[in-house]
Recover the amino acids of this structure.
């Protein structure tokens, strides 16, 4: 039996994928999650075989959640689910440790095929996905993202800032001081060459860091 965790912030997507997957006798959805932090916790406790992970979720996005899961639940294999199809997004997903990449528009017809391919050790790219150069080999894909200039902590702060949380709230979530949060925010904006919050929000949405607000 292949055990699957579904992480998506939309209940209709979670329910639809569960119905498709559990129509097959050898597939079972052991749990669902609505954000990246929840997905990390459930992956660590349940150790599923496959995690189907939305790329843009509140609190923590699917890319950073994948990176954490590959450290804490190394045997779990992640398939990214996204509205973004560019090679940059695929590169970020692969670099984080994912083994597959599906577009939401075709996931219904491809998700079972993706699960089986990834369980057999293959990479899987859905229809319409732009594969980065080198994705089919062991070489690191070359279509890099400006987000790679940021540390893991800076990406966490970026997401929480653009979702409208105060420095005090972010400090509480990440167990930091408000002053440290301000430092991280200033540093990440400088690295990205962005000097105002509206532009930072637009950047975050475009790069799949957070769902459209």
């Amino acid at each position: 039996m292949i055990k699957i965790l579904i992480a998506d912030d939309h209940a209709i997507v979670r329910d639809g994928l569960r119905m498709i997957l559990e129509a097959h006798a050898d597939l079972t959805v052991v749990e669902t999650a609505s954000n990246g932090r929840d997905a990390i916790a459930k992956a660590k406790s349940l150790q599923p075989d496959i995690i189907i992970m939305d790329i843009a979720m509140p609190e923590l996005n699917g890319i950073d959640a994948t990176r954490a899961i590959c450290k804490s639940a190394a045997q779990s294999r992640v398939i990214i689910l996204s509205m973004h199809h560019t090679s940059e997004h695929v590169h970020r997903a692969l670099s984080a440790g994912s083994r597959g990449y599906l577009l939401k528009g075709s996931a219904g017809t491809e998700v079972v095929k993706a699960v089986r391919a990834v369980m057999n050790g293959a990479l899987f790219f859905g229809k319409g996905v732009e594969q980065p150069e080198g994705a089919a080999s062991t070489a690191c894909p070359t279509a890099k993202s400006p987000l790679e200039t940021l540390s893991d902590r800076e990406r966490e702060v970026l997401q929480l800032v653009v979702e409208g949380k105060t420095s005090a709230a972010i400090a509480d979530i990440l167990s930091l001081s408000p002053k440290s949060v301000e430092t991280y925010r200033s540093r990440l904006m400088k690295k990205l060459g962005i000097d105002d919050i509206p532009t930072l929000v637009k950047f975050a949405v475009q790069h799949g860091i957070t769902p459209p607000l």
The chain has two domains: 2-125, 146-206. Confidence is low (pLDDT under 50) at residues 136-143. Residues 2-125 form a domain with the Rossmann fold fold (CATH 3.40.50.2300).
